[in-house]
Every structure is written in C-alpha cells, then in structure tokens.
Amino acid sequence: MILLQAPFLNLQALLDGVMVGSIFALVAYGMALVWGVMNIINVAQGEYVILGGYITFGIYKLGVSPIYGMPFSFLFLFILGYILYRLIVFRVVDKDMFISILATFGISIMIQQFMNMFFGSQVETALTGLGTIFFFDGNITIALVKVFSFVISILGAIAVIYFMRVSKLGRAIRATAQNPRAARILGVDTEKVYAYTYAINAGLCGLAGSLVAMTYTLHPYIGLPYTVRSFMIVIIAGLGNIPGVLVSGLGLGAIEEFSAYLIGSEFRIGVIFSLLVIILVYRSKKLAKKREYLK
Amino acid sequence: MLSDKKELSGITLIILFGVLSPILFPNYRIQLSELWIFMVFASTWNIQGGKMGYNSFGNIIFFGLGMYLCASTQIAYAFDLAEWTAAGGVKTFVHTASQYFIGLPLGLIIAGLVPALIAGFLGSLILGLRGHYFAICTLGIGIAAGEFATSVSIWGGGQGMTVPVWPKVDGQDLDFLGGGMNFFYTLSFLLFVSTFFTLRWLFSTRFGLILTAIRDNEDKAEAMGIPTMRYKVTGWVFSAFFMGIAGGIYGNINGYIEPTEVAFAGATFGVYMVLMTILGGKGTLWGPIIGALVFQVFKEFFWTFFLGWQLVALGFLIIVIVVFFPEGIMGWLRQKKPAWFGEVVDSKARLAQVKINTND
Q: CATH number, domain at B222?
C-alpha cells in the first residue's frame, strides 16, 4: 500500500480533497436549491460552472488578476440563468421530471458547443500568481489559491444561507419550496421566485466555476462530471439538508483525491461515475429494506 | 395501437421501402443502413422509456459493447487480437472468405448474448431505482463505460481499432449478395424487421400489458402480485440483445471503432434514440419508427447546413421537441385521426369531453 509507506501522502490527499470538495459543495448547494424549490434536476449545472470559469479566464486574458473575475462570473451567469428561465425552463417546471432533465440536457449541449467555438478545445487555467506554502520539509505543499478558493466557497455558501434566512426573497423562496400553492394564495409571485432561484443557482455555479478556473483546469467538455458530483452530494446529504451538503461535498472531494492517488488520475471520471452507481444502488437497497419492514 | 388495417399497410410500406430503396438510391446505402439501425435504437429504447416509464440514458452501452465484442470475435477467430491491434489491424492481416463468414455470425451471436447477460445482471441491480434516479444512474453508467473502454489496451485504448474488411478474391471484392455494403444493408434491414416483429408480438402479450402497468403505477402492480422486477429486467434484456447485434453490424459498416465517439457515443447516438422516440411518440409501436425516419431524413439533409453547429442544433432540437411536442407525432395523429387507432368516434361525446377539459 502506497498510502502506508508514505504517510504524508494521506494528509496531502485529504487536504487537497477537502479543498476541491468545498467547490463541489457550492455547486451542489445550487442544485439542491433548484431541486428543492422547483423540482427540477438541472443537468446543465456543470456547464454553468465551466462557463463561469471561462468568463474569469477571459478577464485573466485581458491582463487583470483572475480574482477580480469572480463578481463578473457570478453576475454573467446570474443574468444568463434568469434569461434561460424566462425562455425555456419555466415551460418545464410543472411537467414530468424527465422532461426537465432532457430540456436542461439540451441546454447543456448547446452551452458546451458555444464554449468550444468561442474558447477553443484546449485545456486552460487562469493563474493567480498566489504562492505555495510548504510543510514538513516540503512533504506537503498547499497552493494558496486552493486555500483561497476554499474560503471563498465556504463564504459563498454562508452568504446564501444567510440570504435565505433574512431577506424577503429568501423567505419567499423557502415558502415556495414548502408549498407552492399555499405560497401563491398568500401573495407570493412564484413565477418570480422560480426565476430568481434559477438565476441564483446559475450565479453560484458561475462563482464556483471562477474558482475552478483559478485552482484547476477548464475544458469545454468537462461539465458533466460536475453535474454528477453535485447530484451525488445532494442525494447523499438528502434534499434540504444544508450542513449535510457541505460535509458530503468535502467527503466526496477527499474520496476522489485518494482514488486518484491509488488508481491513477486518468480514471478520475470513471471513478466518479462508478461511485454514482454504487451510491444509488446502495440507496435503493436501503429503501427496499425499509419497504420490507412495512410489509 | 393502430387498427389492423392501418398496421398492415404500414408493414407493407416498410418492407417495400426496405427492398426498393437500395436499388433506387444506391449511393445512400450507408445512410439507409444507418436508418434501420436507428429504428432499432428507438424501438428498443421505447421498451424502457416508452412502455415501462424507465427513462434510460444507458442503452448505448449495449451498443458499444456489442460493437467491440463482434469485432474482436471476428478477429480472434482467425488471428491474435493483441497482435492485430498492435499492428494496426487490416494493414497487415487479411481475412480469407471462409474465415470472414464464420467469424461474422459468431461475432454477431456473441454481440447479442453477452450484452443481454450483462443487462440481466445490471438490471437486477439498478432497475430498483425509480424515475429520475434511474435516468441519472444510467447516464453515469454510459459515460463510465466509455471512460473504461478507453483504458482497455487490447481494444486499442483511446485510439480505437479497425474491423476486418470485406474479403477479396484476386484483388476484387468478393461478389456475395452484391458486395459488402449491400450485405450489411441487408443485415441491418433484417435486424430491424426481426426487432419489429418481436416487439409487436411482445407488446401484444401479457408481458406488454404488465410493462404498461409498471409505467402507470408500479406500486399498484406490485400489490396485485406481479413480480415487477423480473419483468423490468426481462424488458432490458430484450433491448440489450437487439442493441448488441445492432452494434456488431454498425461496427462493420463503419469499419473503425473508437471508444467515446463511435461505440459509447452517449452525446450523439445515446441522445438520438431518446429524441427519435419522443419525436415519434413514446409508448407506441410505430412512434419510434416514424420518429427515426423523420430524424434521419432531417439529419442527412440539414446537418450539412449546420457545419460545426450540429451539436447546437441538436440541443435546440431536444429543447423544442421535449418542451413543445412531448406527445410526439403519434400523439398528434391520435388526436387528429382517432379512427385510425380503432377508437370509436362519437362527435357529440367528443365535444362534451372537450368542454369538460376546458372547464377544468
């Protein structure tokens, strides 16, 4: 076992994993929001992340530090999310869930292709110029940009939770999630609530994508893994369990880092998707057991 | 269900088209074979997505698997598979006619049976998932299969492998059933016909009724004593069997297998089959066939206008079809011409119904 021979590797993998996991948690938080409020699984989630990353990358190309790209990514995706809701998504809100999966899948294919046309298909990274710190005689290295993205994604998640608790729109969103009909009777404009929920989700994805651009790499076709990761995180945590999303996001990041060390990073995507199948099968077996008790 | 008379004329039309079209349009034989393969795609996807209500994005794995299995059986029957892929395949090794025509049926049989077995195993694991969980899970399986196929070195990894070419006699293509392209056209047409009649028979039995019951209310069906799991798995096994053979044939038509673009092409074929079925009408026998026909015609005639924009057009098409025509062509026909479906049309009762609907 390579992990027993090199104990520092464990710590390194854990740290890396937790830091990348915080970004996953931010994306998953957006997905949980849309899923809980609108009963839509947004398959285009990963593409919003990558698009947000490309916005930051574009600002970096202009010669500005990519850190200043974050608000632009957030805003651009917020507006795009709002427009997409008004154009397409509102038509599928009340329909069968599969229709919404397919419709958002269509959106994701389109965004992928547009990104491929505008930004090219090479792998890109936006460099922040933040340094690296070393621990234990250089056995453990931590890129400061990862710490930065960890802090930002935690702060972002906290900001959204605070917004949900305090603001008027936040309360309207929570009311709609509980019972859209009752909310409508009490004077909440649910159509507006849906639009802003979807826009906030897209904005969060944009922010996360901006962090991805600084910390990791961008490529037009790597959106789907982010969607699947956030889907996994949401079903592990359970819908509506906000601290659970954070914890399972960090956990998923750690598992992924460890598997990358053990099996090799070329299987990263294969591992994520296999993990998805395992988790879903485990979940269904557990539910089946529960049903047997009922018998 | 169409009425018997309409159905009979439909079958006659299909068979006439199948026999005459390669003679009338000899330059389009590849596209025509692809059309039959697409009809198999849509018809088998319809068992899950339409009849059973289990929307699968993963049926493509049986196609890819069948493609690889058929090609490797064809090669391994005559040569060493590892040497074949290492040497770049057809450049160094050439099949004789007898090697080719024993290897191909063997390959097609294996391409049908192994995916069917895998569907049985996989199905008993994941068909317990409901609704969107099943959809996302199969989406994951489809992508994972492509990723793992990239790392199988005996199949050429990410570079892919070539498929044996049509045997030559004295430097000339062997003249059997009019050469390679005609031969594979005939094979894909026969595959479609057998798929169609199997499904037609299947949907008319108790099995078909149970699939519909599962779609409408699975818990109720289970409560009535139907072992739903067994039926769901059997349905998937049927799909996988035909998809596997379709993969074997398509690999030979294409001549070259690549893991993510040809075999496990979830973003193109995997989406096409869903789209074709919805376009034609989910849950009907004829819907997927009409949908595949319309889609293939659209794809062949208009895809060249969207050069470089094909995927954008595809995404747009998905959104438009799913959002505006979720009932498909058959659903629209059923509304317009209920008599075609053997429904008794009473215009007074119909008007009354419309009134009730609008009052709601």
A: 1.10.3470
Query: What are the tens digits of pLDDT across the range B226-278?
Result: 898 899 999 999 999 999 999 999 999 888 888 888 888 877 888 888 889 98
Contact A98 B151 (CB under 8 A): no
Stretches where chain B sits below pLDDT 50 are: 360
Which of B359, B185, B163 lies closest to B262 in space, CA to CA? Answer: B163
Q: Is residue B228 part of a domain?
A: yes
Residue A181 belongs to what domain range? 2-294
Q: Is A91 in Cβ contact with B135 (below 8 Å)?
A: no
CA distance B46 to B41: 8
Question: How many domains does chain A divide into?
Answer: 1
B173 assigned to some structural domain:
yes
Nearest to B141 among A107, A269, A277 (CB): A277
Cβ density class B169-191: b for 16+ within 10 Å, e for less = eeeeebeeeeebbbbbbbbbbeb
Q: Which residues of A touch B130 (CB under 8 A)?
A: 284
User: Which residues of B fall within a CB distance of 8 Å from A89?
Assistant: none
Mutate: best of A38, A98, A227, A281, partner B, most B CBs <10 A: A98
**Residue in B148, B312, B323 nearest the CB of A113:** B312
- Pick the residue from chain A with its C-alpha nearest to B124: A281
What residues of B are in contact with residue A231 (Cβ under 8 Å)? 136
Q: Are B287 and B330 in contact (CB under 8 A)?
A: yes
Angle between helices A45-61 and A190-215 (to 10 degrees): 50
Rounded Cα distance between A28 and A7, Å, is: 31
Mutant choice from B136, B150, B152, B260 vs A, greatest count of A C-beta within 10 A: B136
For residue A31, what is the domain's CATH number?
Answer: 1.10.3470
Say which DSSP state B11 is in: H
Contact A11, A167 (CB under 8 A): no
Highest mean pLDDT among A65-79, A109-123, B257-271: A65-79
A273 vs B125: CB contact, 8 Å cut-off? no
* Structural domains counted in chain B: 1
Please report residues of A whose CB lies closer than 8 A to that of B308: 117
The three-state secondary structure class of A39 is coil
The ipTM value here is 0.81
- Whether residue B219 lies within 8 A of chain A, CB to CB, comes out as no
Per-residue pLDDT tens over the stretch A206-248: 999 999 998 888 888 888 889 989 999 998 888 777 788 888 9
Inform me whether the C-beta atom of residue B323 falls under 8 Å from chain A C-beta atoms: yes
Amino acid at B353: Q
Which range has the top average pLDDT, A46-50, A179-183, A268-272, B160-164?
Answer: A46-50
Backbone angles phi and psi of A132, in degrees to 5: -125, 140
Tokens read off for B121: 């195993």
- State how beta strands B161-162 and B256-257 pair: antiparallel
pTM of the full structure? 0.85
- CB pair distance less than 8 Å for B140 and A99: no
Residue of B258, B272, B279 whose CA lies nearest to B303: B272
Nearest CB to B314: which of A109, A228, A284?
A109
